[in-house]
Automatic annotation (TrEMBL):
It catalyses: GTP + AH2 + S-adenosyl-L-methionine = (8S)-3',8-cyclo-7,8-dihydroguanosine 5'-triphosphate + 5'-deoxyadenosine + L-methionine + A + H(+). It comes from Pelovirga terrestris. InterPro entries: Aldolase_TIM (IPR013785), Elp3/MiaA/NifB-like_rSAM (IPR006638), MoaA (IPR013483), MoaA-like (IPR040064), MoaA_NifB_PqqE_Fe-S-bd_CS (IPR000385), MoaA_twitch (IPR010505), MoCo_biosynth_MoaA/MoaC (IPR050105), rSAM (IPR007197). This is GTP 3',8-cyclase. The lineage of its organism: Bacteria, Pseudomonadati, Thermodesulfobacteriota, Desulfuromonadia, Geobacterales. S-adenosyl-L-methionine binds at Y26, G67, S118, M188. The gene is moaA. Monomer and homodimer. [4Fe-4S] cluster 2 binds at C251, C254, C268.
Length: 323
């Protein structure tokens, strides 16, 4: 289905939990967030009903997010049911990698062939500081296990000045020998840290740095591709991507909607608007559910205003919405 600006919407990001086993400094405040009561979180059968309705409108790819999706009990069985839905061509999962070594084989068998792994440093101390206590060794072990079972891997790095900007070239180098996609993401002030403006490294600056050290060849994105501008270092096995939500929004090619773990359907991560799907999840209300999702797609804004007017959006934790 196309939205009112002619963009084909074929991609749903579905958060299955707001809970996480890390406390990344750009995702939530130091004080943490209050987790929702279990009764406020959608059941798996309700999520499957939403996805089934979305497929009738042309959704073909589903990405499972959180919080950290692997902390929710029963996730493997849910993914198996999701993969069995008619119309779904691709299931991907975003994870911080802490539990990945334990789940990689089951995830692959359940139908998840692609992983986005949040990894913001290759240095144990820096990684621990960013995640407020995370163990880099566990993440690296998880990546190794996922690669061993045959999963396609994307590494997502939020580039932050004064935090991990000295590691950008180290991350780019990972794509030379490994068939991984390494993506550099501009910092977004979703929680409004003090002096957040000083954290931002523009995509243009990242690209200039990479060009100083490597010959980069631009690539063409596929139809399910997200907002990254893809490149390949000459002769590299993997690829690089740059995501610029602040300096150069990619809204003109956005192909996604999202549903939070509490059943709020959003056409844009940065929008304050949402449609509550929970009243429409009865077994005899599928047509109303489809109409609600259609309204979300048709109401998708032309672009967000985060870069030009960050105060236009209410601060939020990425864990509560599904980044």
């Amino acid at each position: 289905m196309q939205d009112s600006f002619g963009r084909t919407i074929n991609y749903l990001r579905l958060s299955i939990t707001d809970r996480c086993n890390l406390r990344c400094l750009y995702c939530m405040p130091a004080t943490g967030i209050t987790s929702q009561h279990h009764d406020n979180i959608l059941r798996y059968d309700e999520m499957l009903r939403i996805v089934a309705a979305a497929t009738t409108l042309g959704i073909r790819k589903v990405r499972i997010t959180g919080g950290e999706p692997l902390v929710r009990k029963g996730v493997i069985g849910f993914l198996e049911q999701l993969a069995a839905l008619e119309g779904i061509e691709e299931i991907a999962l975003t994870t911080n990698g802490i539990l990945l070594a334990d789940y990689a084989e089951e995830l692959y068998a359940a139908g998840v062939k692609r992983l986005n792994i949040s990894l913001d440093s290759l240095k144990p101390d820096t990684f621990s500081d960013i995640t407020r206590g995370g163990d880099l060794g566990r993440v690296l072990a998880g990546i190794g296990k996922a690669e061993q079972v045959g999963m396609k891997i994307k590494l997502n790095l939020v580039a932050m000045r004064g935090v991990n900007d000295h590691e950008l070239l180290d991350f780019a180098a990972l794509s030379i020998d490994k068939p991984w996609s390494v993506r550099f993401i501009e910092y977004m002030p979703t929680i409004r840290e003090q002096q957040w403006q000083h954290r931002i490294i523009s995509g243009a600056d990242i690209l200039a740095l990479l060009n100083q050290h490597y010959q980069l060849n631009p690539l063409t994105a596929d139809r399910f591709c997200g907002p990254a501008r893809p490149y390949r270092i000459a002769g590299a096995a993997g690829t690089l991507g740059i995501i610029t939500p602040m300096s150069e929004h990619f809204c003109g090619s956005c192909n996604r909607i999202r549903v939070t773990s509490m059943g709020q359907a959003k056409s844009c991560l940065m929008s304050n608007d949402a449609v509550d799907l929970r009243p429409l999840l009865g077994v005899r209300q599928q047509s109303k559910l489809i109409d609600a999702l259609k309204m979300v797609i048709c109401g998708k804004p032309e672009h967000h205003c985060l870069g030009s007017d960050p105060d236009s959006t209410t601060p939020f934790s990425m864990a509560s919405i599904g980044g």
